[in-house]
Design a protein that fits this description.
Elements lengths: L17 H4 L7 E11 L1 H11 L3 H5 L3 E4 L9 E6 L6 E11 L8 E9 L5 E11 L4 E12 L2 H5 L1 H24 L3
Antiparallel strand pairs: 1-7, 2-3, 3-4, 4-5, 5-6, 6-7
Helix pairs in contact: 2-5
Length: about 180
């Protein structure tokens, strides 16, 4: 990129980076979802590769514009969801990244991004993919935050339903990535 940021402003919430080292701030709702993704080191590596190149979000149906094709700390990304004039842009900045390590054995990789002004929530979301000692691959999605304004706060029930739906899409995307589905 030519130095032009795709989203303005600074991270706008308390607890920056706590999706990696926890716990989330006490005064915000924190949701953690975990699911089976697949088995084996190849499945783990495919899922991680897709996660660290924005494919997890894209396969979940989000429109993704990022400053980098690969997830790196400081990268700004704008995810869009919705249809036509009802599309909502959600600007974020990557606050931490954990890459896979060479070799096999239990490990995890992931990243977290925090919200920027214009996002419907003020908080953080993280995606982590694990492989355990039995070669079982799982995904963990951690999100905490509060509505960014009264308009989004008023839509609490709709927002919770949308969050559950997108989380299930992330899980399905991770399963497809692990399986090598094109």
């Amino acid at each position: 990129m030519s130095g032009q940021r795709i989203a303005a402003g600074e991270l706008n919430y308390e607890g920056i980076g706590t999706t990696e080292h926890g716990p989330a701030p006490a005064d915000v709702e924190c949701l953690i979802s975990q699911a089976y993704v697949g088995d084996g080191l190849a499945a783990y590596r495919r899922a991680v590769q897709g996660m660290l190149t924005w494919q997890l979000q894209k396969r979940a149906g989000l429109r993704v514009r990022a400053e980098s094709d690969v997830v790196v700390p400081g990268t700004r990304v704008v995810s869009g969801f919705g249809v036509g004039p009802f599309r909502i842009d959600a600007p974020c900045e990557v606050v931490w990244v954990r890459r896979p390590v060479p070799g096999d054995g239990p490990q995890s990789a992931g990243f977290g991004f925090g919200t920027l002004p214009g996002h419907p929530v003020r908080g953080e979301e993280a995606f982590e993919i694990f492989i355990d000692e039995k070669d079982m691959v799982t995904i963990k999605i951690t999100a905490f935050g509060v509505p960014s304004n009264r308009f989004y706060a008023a839509g609490g029930t709709v927002a919770k339903r949308a969050r559950r739906r997108i989380t299930s899409r992330y899980i399905r995307s991770a399963q497809e990535l692990a399986a090598g589905v094109s």
